[in-house]
Amino acid sequence: MDKRVNIVKAAPAAYKAMSALSNTVEQSGLEHSLLELVKMRASQINGCAFCLAMHSADARKGGESEARLYLLNGWRETPVYSERERAALAWTEALTLITEGHAPDAVYEEVRRQFSDEELANLTMAIVTINGWNRIAISSRMMPVIAKNIG
């Protein structure tokens, strides 16, 4: 397979806009730890190794425990996540797996209980953004630098 298009070079304005959206989400006031869990969960679902390596490293730097990172794929089966985190993870799955149907009302009702209007809007934008980044990384075949990010 020939080398894929470098999106940063081929569409710099769009890439810059995507980066600005990411920065806006990061400055939204949502907890950094929550945002990293959301990014990792969407990246797990989408199979984005590049983003998983990046965000697991970022989560660790932010103080996230190894146990919670290891358990993330099975978050429903463990009590280590708060109700707020669980609502955010369910919302992440609902929006990431959107081809399975509309975001379920029960999931929306729970995320609505846990987040203010502004927080929910920012959480939704965080999910939209990481799904976009996943698609950029996967389509470009971006590979994680294991030694740098993980090991």
Describe this structure in words.
This protein has 151 residues and is mainly alpha-helical. It has one domain (32-149): Up-down Bundle (AhpD-like), CATH 1.20.1290.10. It has helices spanning 7-10, 12-26, 32-46, 49-61, 66-71, 83-96, 105-114, 117-140, 146-149. Helix 3 (32-46) runs antiparallel to helix 4 (49-61) and helix 6 (83-96) packs across helix 7 (105-114). The radius of gyration is 16 Å and the shape is globular.
Summarize the structure.
InterPro entries: AhpD-like, AhpD_core, CMD-like. The chain has 151 residues and is mainly α.
Structural class call reads: mainly alpha
Task: Tell me the Rg in angstroms.
Answer: 16 Å
Main sheet attributes: strand count, strand direction, barrel closure: none
Termini Cα gap: 28 Å
| CATH topology tier name | AhpD-like
Oligomer: single chain
State mean pLDDT (0 to 100 scale).
94
CATH architecture: Up-down Bundle
Helix content: 55-70%
How would you describe this structure in keywords?
globular; peroxiredoxin activity; mainly alpha; AhpD-like; 70% helix; Alkyl hydroperoxide reductase AhpD; 151 residues; AhpD_core
